[in-house]
Write a structure and sequence with these properties.
The complex is a heterotrimer of chains A (about 250), B (about 325) and C (about 280). By secondary structure, chain A is α/β, with parallel strands linked by helices. Chain A is built from eight helices and twelve strands. Chain C has helices at about 35-45, 75-80, 95-100, 115-130, 135-155, 180-190, 205-215, 240, 250-255, 265-275; strands at about 10-15, 20-25, 30, 50, 85-90, 105-110, 165-170, 175, 190-195, 215-220, 245. In chain C, the strands form three sheets. In chain C, strands 7, 8, 9, 10 and 11 form a five-stranded mixed beta sheet that branches. A four-stranded parallel beta sheet of chain C has the order 4-3-5-6. In chain C, strands 1-2 form a two-stranded antiparallel ribbon. Classes of the chains: A alpha/beta (about 250), B mainly alpha (about 325), C alpha/beta (about 280). The interface between A and B is medium-sized, with 38 and 27 residues.
Amino acid sequence: MKPFAIQTKDLHVSIDKMQVLHSMDLSIEAGRWTCVVGPNGAGKSTLLKALAGLIASTGQLHIQGRALIEMSDKDRAKCMAWLGQQESGSEDLSVRDVLMLGRLPHQSLWTGASAQDQSIVQAWIDRLQLAHLQDRSLLQLSGGERQRVLLGRALAVQAPILLMDEPIANADIPHQSDWLQTVKQLTQQQTTVVSVLHDLNLAMRADQVVLVHQGRLVIQASPEDPLLHQALTDVFERRMLIHKVTDHWVVLAI
Amino acid sequence: MNLSRVTVLTWSLLALSLMAMAMGLMTGSLGWEWHTDWHDPIVQDIRLPRTLGAWLAGALLGLAGALAQGLFRNPLADPYLLGCASGASLGVALALAIGVWGYAEVGQLSFAMQWWFRLGLTGMAFIGAWVAVLLTLMLARGAEQTLRLLLAGVVVGVVLGAVTSLLTFAFPQTLPAMQSFLLGNTTMLSGQACVMMGAIWLVCLALSCLLSPLLDGLRLGEATAQSLGLQVKPLRILLLAVMGLATASAVAQTGLIAFVGLVAPHLVRSRFQGPYASLLVLSSLMGGVLLTTADVLARGLWAPQELPVGVLTGVLGGGYLLWRLHSPSVKAM
Amino acid sequence: MGLWFHAAVAVTVTDDRQVTVTFTQAPKRIVTLLPSLAETVCVLGACDRLVGTDKHANWPASVKALPKLGGLDDTQLEALVRLKPDLVLLAKSARIIQRLEALGIAVLALELQTHADVHRVLQTVAVVLQLSNAQDQADAVWQNIQQQVNQAKANIPSQAINATVYLEASTGGYAAGEASFIGEILRQLGLKNIVPAGMGAFPQLNPEFVVRANPQLMVLAQPMVTHLSQRPGWSGIAAIKNKRVCAFPSAQADVLVRPGPRLGEAAQLISDCVQRSFPS
């Protein structure tokens, strides 16, 4: 059995004195791609932030066997890379500089960027086909290109666990395909990927699907599992059909 | 490569600084003097500390401005946002009012008020600026939320400003000195002031460059910065403290000089993008150049009378911003 | 002083706005909004007719007990009207003039900027007060002032004649030039101001200018100006090296900065200090 990259027991999260996540017991396997799905407002982003240690939670939370609260900020940052939904920030950074920021967890205050950092960033620029854009500022990019750049930043951290919240919301089909490829390569290299996706078709390509509804864990199962299909249909109020089309599960709204 | 760009810009700004300072040494009560006697005590005792002091005050303000714009992630932020300016004004008004009251009531200063003498206007301005920053931080309950911090700064500014107005109303003899402070001038800068500003500048520059990864991380958003392992809360408070220290030191010595903190980072960013550490250093150098130039003009345009240097920075800075607003450049602020 | 029975005499006066005001009776309830105008009224012996002054008036001592009505810019209109004045004396720059005239109160705006002004205002006020032999009384007061000035001048030791002098008029480094009121006094005393008339009355100078001029005497008309020797480059100035700096406490400083009928006193104050600074 593969070890668990992330394990939670009885995880609760409150924001402004309101309970947002209730009693979640999750076990996310290492080296696999797990996708978190659910209706709007279910608490998916909150869950991801809680796992990343960005918001406070009660209950047990273990990352690679270690309790999160016992990890230093640097250790946590080297262990888990987090890519959130588009936050407001300054747009005048160049693409290259954005990716370089991903190397921050590996740099101390005294040393700056090392040659190794530069080469890692260069490798990701090439892999994500950003070479022709690398000196442009974020402002000058299209939505899809910007997302690829931000994804590159998260990948540049080279953490064993990658948490992504809606990483391809604006991507066109070819880039969605590229993203799927990248995730596959990452899991093959034993990186754990946890993503929140609203597109159920893409979500059903994952190794594991976690369904969240109203702040609670409904089910965690493989996409093949009929119990998952039943749960999905229930949660989404029976307004969908799930069919297998040439080896891939397809979810259709009706 | 960006690194060489930084080097080029740094050297150019240093060269400009030297030129501006040279002009400063040649400008005095007789206007421009091409053949200045370097051994003249006037040049050594008055012009040298003034010119150097103007550069250092500008450097402090430029640094503080870059810090403000990075911490608040807003290109219109300036170092006076946390109520520093009103706090310093109140400190000065209080010092002047105590002086007037002391002389009026007692005839000569009692021993208890000797402390006021030693502290002087500079000390009171510095303390006032710090009290205002502390009040703002307390009111905003820490530096967590940017919006709350900004609002608290506005509130503190307004309230302290009202108290200052009350003091100048009650003691109208303080008005000319207050006006002088509010418009800024380098008239009384001494060698001691330069040493103090220089030391503080080096400390602030070193600290902020060390902590600049926070500002880089913040450019992607607070949550992302945190996920990159940056301890956002404590680092932010530290940087705010550095910003407050730099601003308070400059304001205490030269009064409220407008626009240098706002415009210096803008000018730098229009020529250079990159990691914040470089931005901080370049903004600081640019601030030095700006204020020295304004000071030279303030002293030279109407010699032997002096214009308040804050008026010139307002005109030059405001003019630059106006030009930016109307220029068809693609790069946004 | 008892009641004086005057024959009803109509007196017409033109003030410095070129506005003519006619008084059918001598004014008995006078409000002044400038300390020097209160001083003028008192120096002409009509202090008992004052019913209210501005907040800065403090001479003579009896004036301090009168109701205070703010200043030229922030006059307390209600309090003023309640005093039922039949004459208000103020400067041209007072903001309240229109309101007062609209309320039917007699207003005279008088400018006191130069020595000549002092003489002229003395005459105008004497006429308005309907003093017996108004012109002569005013002239007598003026002669008295002139005598004080001449006495002060005579007391200046010979080595101090034509000494160069720097006078700082207020906090913030404003110097008093030849064109100012106190500059005139210095000139009458035979002292040379380092700030020529061309620079205006109160220029804000580059401290280098003062160092270059190297005045032999410094007069501080503001009690709060301190630590002159600590100003960069100033410790070498002759006046500071030889300790010829005249500083005055607040009550005396008032006399120096106010253009008014106490200019004789101001001259004497300066002269006394000069005597102390240049001991023979």
